[in-house]
Amino acid sequence: MNKRDKKCESVQEDKRVELQSMDDVLAHVVGSHGLWQCILLCTGVIGLPPYEMFSIFGNAKPNVRCRMQDDMESLLQNKTFEEATQFIQGQPTNLDVVYSYLPECYHRLSGKLNSTEFGSLSNLTYASLYTPVVQRCPNGYVYEPRKDQYPSSVIESFDLVCDRAWLEPFSTTMFMIGMLLGFYLGGWAGDRFGRRPTIIFWYTLGTTTGFLASFSPNIACLCLGRFILGAADSARLTVLYILVFELTIPKWRSILCSFWTMLQSFCARAFVAFLAYLIPDWRWLNFAMTGVGFAGVVYFFVGPESPRWYLARGESKKALDVLVSGYRYNHFGQCPPKEELARLRTFTEMVGSRNTATQMDAAPDAETRRKRGFVYWIKSTSMWEFFRSSELTRRIILGSLVFLCHIYCYFGLLLYSNHVRGNVYLVTVINSATALPGTLLSCALYRIFSWRKRPIIGVFTSAFLTSLVAAVCTLTNVDPKDIVLTICVGLSLLMLESGMDMIYIYIPELFPTLLRSKGLGFCAGFARLGSALCSFTNALDTSIGHGVPIAFYTVSIALVVVALLPLPDTRGYELEEIVERDKQLEWNSSEQFGSSISVHRV
């Protein structure tokens, strides 16, 4: 039998399959992994610039010293930056002196010097040149980019040093808090108003804000812009990830998820490093990132609504139109034959009418809702179910801790690139490249082993060991060029990337079907608090000592392993239903064709 005969036989077999679920429709009629799905995935990635990478370049820390009077500054122009800094700070009598203040924020030059004496500094004594008491910088600061770091910085633009230094990590924290808010808003809006309107709204808001933030006149406007960008980025990513899941079948979800990870975590981030290399100004870099993301406007014309969402609302005609459109994409413009069209129409009408009837029967009347009041609202959220069972409470707490510590370490190590003593562009590309082997490793481990928890513990243990080596070598100054640090951080990110892929599969299996989406959503949303803290942790590298943040991340990875130990191993199957299905809760939750995992990838 030749290939053509086999293909014809396969087509005939597909026609004989009874369409009982949306997975059957996608697998045997529309297509589960064709051009339709690829266009959606690619437009989604292109329209999602990795704004979290902006902090690596835009928040680069330059060298700083006090700006003196104009006459003194003209004299210091003939000196190097290091010589000028040493001159205005004064040479300490004890070379082992430890400053109790930030040296770049003060000077010790005598205020009695006048312009006539600047030209004869060699004739002045040390006592007449310097004062014993340090003085704050009177005229602002002078900046110089550090070697191998991004030459432009929001620190220089807005003087985020000394008593304003906390605003630099705060801008990153605002972005992460925005992502936390957008995570929940995107999931709620996607279920309430539909996938397509939600994506379009947050795309428009995010793109507009991205362009405006590039011309922020002060740090307050930049923080506000970063907050909105974080919310828009997270909300779009949430709904797009759901939509990709809903337009394919379980067999292909892991492959599409891996492809998404490689594009978003490696290609997009490496491209940002390339843009930063070409554009040495943080404002135009942010503008260029938004400009590239503007290509996502293609979704306005080709992006579909989820047919599962339509069917869950009983809108069978709209669901049929989406499926027919998907068929034409996957079959390169061909319309479905009359027989296939009839099968699709029969399926959508059957499921749509069934879901409409179910919702009408299950929904309580207005009088019942009024009597129940606040209690009804609390129960309708179904979050209270996590606290009816001690086992569920334990799992939600430990699962949240796993996500929190993981995201804290992952983003912390990723954004630590501008603290490593090496070329920031090369370090960023190396760290981004860990997404490739990390994703392949997670796929291989879950294909070889039936366990869910043990491979996760293995990769986090490996991440702990590599981070421990990096912390020890850096804190003891064994590796002054940070070669070991760069390698170990890259290996840790590889393991954390692999672990992230696996916990997004393992954690949902810890919860019963009714609570699985909300359980994973709560854990993943809570984890954004960790990403908000990591920018302040990285600031310790300057204020306390080089390598201190790595020690914090090492301890955090160890906490992930400790939190995983008490949890059960699901081995890839769903656990028993721990809570009893309540009709009211069942009405509020999504039906079979509308359910999805309302979370996004980091």
From TrEMBL:
GO cellular component: membrane
Residues that span the membrane, as ranges: 166-187, 199-220, 226-245, 257-278, 284-302, 396-417, 423-449, 456-477, 483-507, 546-567
GO molecular function, one term: transmembrane transporter activity
Signal peptide positions on this chain: none
UniProt-listed InterPro entries: MFS_dom, MFS_sugar_transport-like, MFS_trans_sf
Keyword line: Membrane, Transmembrane, Transmembrane helix
Membrane topology listed for this record: Multi-pass membrane protein
Record carries keyword Transmembrane helix: yes
Keyword Membrane listed: yes
Domain Major facilitator superfamily (MFS) profile, first and last residues per copy: 124-571
Compartments it resides in: Membrane
Protein name as annotated: Organic cation transporter protein
Source organism phylogeny: Eukaryota, Metazoa, Spiralia, Lophotrochozoa, Platyhelminthes
